[in-house]
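Our platform keeps sequence and structure together, in a single record for each protein. Such a record has a labelled line for the sequence and another for the backbone structure tokens. Nothing more is needed to write down the fold, since each code stands for a local backbone conformation. For reference, a complete record is included directly beneath this paragraph:
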Amino acid sequence: MSKQEIQPYRWFNTLLWGNTVALSWTWGLGLFFSVQFTTQFGLPGLLSFAIPNGLGLIAFGFVAHHLARRESGGSESLGKFFTAWSRPFRLIFFLYQLLAITLTIFALIRYGWMPLGFQPEFLFLPLILLVVLAAGILFGEEFNIRRIKWSHGVIFLILAATIVILAFAPQRITGGGTSIAVGRIPADDWNFWGYLIPIVIGFLLGPWFDLQQWQRAIQMHRERVSVAAAYIAGGLQFFLLVVFHGLLAIWVLSSGGTRFLRNGLGGHVYGHDSVMRFLFDKAADHPWIFGAYCVFLCGCILTTLDSGYIALRWFLQSNVRTSVNAIFALIPTALVTSPIPLFLFCGVVALAGAVVGLELEYFMIFYATFFVGYSALGIARCYVNTPANRIPQIKMFCIGSLAVVIFAFGFLLNYPVFMIIGSLLPLGYVLWVLAKPTSSEDFVSDAEALDASADSISPLSASVMPAAKETPHAAPLRSTLVETAAAIGDAAKSLVGAVQHPLGGHFEDKWFVHSFVATYADTNSVGNVYFGMYAMWVGKTRELFFNRVMPKFNLKDTPFYILTRSFEHKFVRETREFETVSVRIRIGGYNRKFVTLEHEIYDSQNHLLGKGQQSLLFVASADYKMIDVPGEVHTAFLPYV
């Protein structure tokens, strides 16, 4: 294929990815709150909502594009970066995605179905929930991340047809178009700023913890599609979709739709479902227009749910592959990695929220407050060097929860200033954490801080108090004392280390370490260690490890045997006789049937000689039939996982 033939396809592929970016971001919040904010503040409110949304997507695309080009690894550079960068934020990613799916299902039921008034609700609401869940799961199972751009391309064509039909609604229903007053930003209205500032902060930072967007960006980079260009296209398309829906709301309100507005908690006027109620009221005379709007809503919701399903499955599978948590050994992998139970949970919560009459803003609070701090910290960690895999989890959670409460008080009591403070508080705290002189202390654990203190102070120097004032003649003496103390401290450490390293091996954190001296019997004819000895050293260390963790194991009465399923070793460098060698073994992971042991071999200079892994299986001692990992092994191994 020539370069001229490749170029048009690349642009077409970029537009396809931009389309799926826009549709995956057209979720319950973007779809229905655009109507609500337009109801409250007209066209200025609509643009104030749509512009930060679109800019947030574009900004994420630019940064992701830069990260992909900055990191090494070719087409996998962005994926490798995300794996390392996201590790301390895994719980936040999980909560963000669950809330997004719950909010989307809730919005469709609350503002798309309940206005239709079908009775009895206890029958119809669960049925519509099952339809929504089944559609999201079906499309999520049918289309993976590589094929989703094609399914979303077809759905966009359907949405385009509904938009054309709805564009003629003003002429068909009211006999003519409606002039839209541009208006001015209500700068003197604190209610407007109480919404606008959280919207700007929340949506500019919002895409950073959306698994759907990260998965798309990673796949784009694998396909050598410009992430920045695709997100520019997606941001613009999303902006146009939201503006279209908002303009539809402006026409409805100017055509008598204000009678469908209702008062709610805190004195707020709610109109999320005003378009649906208005068009349903005209459905008998204009069924095509009402049907087009229903298809428009369902298409936008479906492209969010199937994207959420695929992203959740990707997230769960990657966590199961890298985690050694015991729960993954007790529950079937197919169940742990399936998003279906999570979808059912989100659906039940969404249905309960719709039944009790919650509003979309109650869910939106978390995106304007709780996740803001994590998003800001995540962006900073892309460019600010901090110790890996450490964030001040407890502090961040407390600040996020406090921000949620402050914002909730402001919203329910109609104090917009509190809403602004609630959104700015997490952002300000992150800036403080990164800028304060002791910021590095927030990114290490207590154990690391304790170890660092112990290692940096020798036993003798820790007990010597500095003088209040030092004279010039005292400086040489002090230097001599410090050097002597350091030497004694090193000797003490060596002595302590010798005591802590018995012949039967010892533990260093999760690693079991066995050290010894290689001798002539370990070498071959040319004097270096024979290659087969490395495997024998690993086997001996494994036996010592078993003896340490299962001291009561007895071959005479054991109900099970431990067999080696596979063994792999990579040779890195050679060693010779009389060299001190350390073999390290730890539990790399396990599931219901197998246990994986990882090993590393080092010389006295801490040079890596080789590394590898082995897989263990278990059989019954009576008939040698394969069995699950015995409970005794679980109990013995768990402390070292």
Q: What stands out?
A: The radius of gyration is 31 Å.
